[in-house]
Amino acid sequence: MLPGEHGLPEAIFASDGQIVNRLFAALSREADQHIACGLKEQLQILQVVWFCKHRQDLRCPACSSPSLIRKGWRHRKLKTSRGSFTLFVLQVRCRNCGRTFRPWNDRVGLPSSRRILEELEAKAIFLGTQVSFARSAQIVRQLTCGTVSAEGIRRKIAELSQKIQLPSPQKGETVLVDSTKVKAGSKERGVPVYLAVTAQPGSSQSNRPTCNKQLLHLHVGTAEPLKNLLRQRMPDYLVHDGGDNLEDCAKHVQRCRWHLGYQLKHYLWQDGIPHNFRPPFHEALMDIMKDPENGPQRYLKLANNLATCGLKTTAGHLLNAAPEAFTFLKEPGFSYIDTSPLEREMREINRRVDIGARWSSSGVESVLKVLLHQRLNETSMGQS
Ligand SMILES: [Zn+2]
After folding, report:
1. How far apart are alpha carbons 74 and 187 in whole angstroms?
2. How many angstroms is it from 94 CA to the middle of ligand 1?
3. Parallel, antiparallel, or unpaired for β 100-101 and 211-220?
4. How far is the CA of 5 from the centre of ligand 1 (A)?
5. First CA to last CA across the chain, in angstroms?
6. C-alpha 100 – ligand 1 centre gap (Å)
7. Which of the ends of the chain has fewer CB neighbours closer than 10 A, N or C?
8. Is it the case that residue 67 has pLDDT exceeding 90?
9. How far, in Å, from the CA of 91 to the mean position of ligand 1?
C-alpha cells in the first residue's frame, strides 16, 4: 500500500495479511518522513555550496550590482505525489539597492509560479488523457499523497497541447489519414477529428506483426489545416479514406482498400440494393483489389457493369476513386495500402471522448493531441 492510499476493508484480508499490510504502511510513512527531512537538509547544503561557488557571477536583477549577501530562507510549499513538501529556498539581498531575490529558483527549474512538482503534474496529465478530468483528480487523490483539481488537469493538458511539436514525414515514409466524428461543438452529430500518422511495419512480436506509428497531425474541424500541412510537407506516399480530395497533398496517393469496399456497401444501399445482396459486390471488389495483373481493367469493367445495371451512385464511387485505387502497383514504396493501423488509434480516441458529455472543439482537440502524442511519439507504449 502506497502512503496515502486508502486501505481495503479489513475483513477481506487474512489476519497475517493485515499485519504485513499495516507494517508496510507504517514503514512507508516513516521512510517518506525520513526522505523529506534528508532532502530538506541536503537541498539547503547544496544551495549554500552553490551560492559560495557562484556568488562572483551573480548580479542584482534590479541594479546589476555584484555586491550581494545571503538573506535567510524563503519557504516554498510544493505538492508532490508523496505529499506536500516545504522547500527552503536561499534568498540573496543586494547591498546596493536592497532588492531581495532567489537566484537558485531558475537554476533548478522552479519558476516562482510553480506549486506542483512536475512528477505529480505528469501523472495527472497522463490520467487526464485516459479518463475524465474529475475521475483523474479522484485517482490522483486515492493513489498518491498529492492532490490536483479536475480543472487544474484540464488546464495543464490545454497548455501542454499548445507546446507539442509534431514531427514531419521523412523521405520514403507512408502517411495514413483518416477522420472520425466526436461529440463536440454545437452540431448534433458532432465534428470530425482529422488524424495523420506515419506507419512502418515493426518487428514481429510473439508471431504478431507490429507497426511503428508517429503522430504527424491531429485537429478538430474542417480538412483544410490537414491539407495545408500535407501540401507543405509533401510526403512521398499517402493513404486516405476518400472522404476529402487529397490528390495534391502527396507525391503518390492511394485510396484505402478497406474504405473502398466499406463505402461500396453504403452506395449500394443508396442505389436501393437490399442488404443481403450487397456482400457479393463487396467480395468481387476485394478480389479485384488483390489482383495485381488484371485488377485495374477488371475494376473499370465492374464500374461500367454497375453503371449499365443502373447502379449509378455505386459506379460513380468506383470511377471517382479509380485514379487512386491502384497507385501501389506503379509505386511499390507504400508500407500500407489501407488505413488499418489507424483503427487502434480511432478506438483510443472514441474511448476517451465518449464520456457522456459534449466537449468544446478546442477541449477535445487538446486532450486527443496529448493522448496520441504520448502514445505514439513519446513512448513505445502505444505501438501495436
Ligand atoms: Zn540592486
Report:
1. 52
2. 5
3. unpaired
4. 48
5. 32
6. 8
7. N
8. yes
9. 13
